[in-house]
Design a protein that fits this description.
The structure is a single chain. By secondary structure, the protein is an alpha/beta fold. The protein folds into two domains: 118 residues, Rossmann fold (3-Layer(aba) Sandwich), CATH 3.40.50; 92 residues, 2-Layer Sandwich (Alpha-Beta Plaits), CATH 3.30.70. 32% of the residues lie in helices and 26% in strands.
C-alpha cells in the first residue's frame, strides 16, 4: 500500500515510521528544511519531500494520484482540511484520514472536505473513558463520514439478552461487527450468536439506524433517556 503523510511532526513521523516498518511504501511531505533533513536521516526507508502539502504542484510532484491513502497530520486544522480536499478532489485518493487538532473544528472534517476518517484525540479519549465505565448506553468510538462505530455494553435489562443476532431485527443499514465477551474474548458475530449480559457490542450505524439500534440493544425507555 502507498501512503502519503502530510506533516513531519511527532504524529506524522511516528505514523510514517510505523507504516514503513509494516512494509508499506510511505512518502512524508514537510516544508521545514531542518525537519526534512532530520527525518531523512532517521527514516531512510521513507521518501521525504520538502514541499508544502497545501500546494497542488507539490502533490503533483509526488504523483499523489498513485497513492492509496493520504494522512493529514499537521498541527493546523485549516492545513489538514486543505490537504484532504486536494487529495480527494484533485487526485482522487481512495482513503483520506485527517487529524483534528481543536475539538471545536471536528464538525468540519467530513466528506464535503474530502475527509473519510477524522481522528480527534480529545473525542477519542472521551469515548474510551465512557466505553470503560458506561453500561447500558451507546458510546461513539469513531466516525467514518456519516457512519459511526458505536459500542454498547449490554445491561441486565437489555431486550437483546438471550436473543440470537438473527432474531434482533437489526436494520439493513446497520451492522454488528464484533462482540467482546468475558475476559476480552472477541466473538465474531454470526446469525446464531446469542447476546449475553455484559457483552460489549460494536455496531456500525448511520443517522437513520442509530435510534433503532439503541432500542434493540438498550431498550426504548433507556434509549429515550440517553
Amino acid at each position: 500500500m502507498k501512503v502519503a503523510v502530510a506533516g513531519a511532526g511527532n504524529v506524522g513521523t511516528y505514523i510514517a515510521a510505523d507504516l514503513s516498518e509494516g512494509g508499506h511504501e510511505v512518502a512524508l511531505i514537510e516544508q521545514d528544511p531542518d525537519v526534512v533533513a532530520r527525518v531523512r536521516a532517521a527514516l531512510p526507508k521513507v521518501k521525504v519531500l520538502e514541499a508544502d502539502a497545501c500546494e497542488v504542484t507539490s502533490l503533483q510532484a509526488l504523483h499523489l494520484e498513485e497513492y492509496d491513502v493520504m494522512v493529514a497530520t499537521t498541527g493546523d486544522d485549516e492545513d489538514n482540511l486543505v490537504v484532504s480536499l486536494l487529495a480527494k478532489q484533485e487526485f482522487a485518493v481512495p482513503r483520506v484520514v485527517a487529524r483534528v487538532n481543536h475539538p471545536q473544528n471536528h464538525w468540519l472534517f467530513n466528506e464535503s472536505w474530502g475527509v473519510d476518517i477524522s481522528v480527534s484525540t480529545p473525542h477519542l479519549l472521551t469515548a474510551l473513558v465512557e466505553e470503560a465505565v458506561a453500561v447500558g448506553s451507546l458510546v461513539r468510538l469513531m466516525q467514518f463520514g456519516d457512519t459511526q462505530l458505536v459500542e454498547v455494553t449490554l445491561a441486565d435489562g437489555s431486550p437483546a439478552i438471550g436473543q440470537a443476532i438473527s432474531e434482533l431485527g437489526v436494520p439493513r443499514d446497520a451492522s454488528i461487527v464484533a462482540v467482546i465477551r468475558g475476559d476480552r474474548h472477541v466473538v465474531v458475530p454470526r446469525g446464531e450468536t446469542v447476546m449475553e449480559s455484559g457483552d460489549e457490542v460494536l455496531v456500525l450505524v448511520n443517522p437513520e439506524s442509530q435510534e433503532r439500534v439503541k432500542a434493540l440493544l438498550i431498550g426504548a425507555a433507556a434509549a429515550d433517556a440517553t
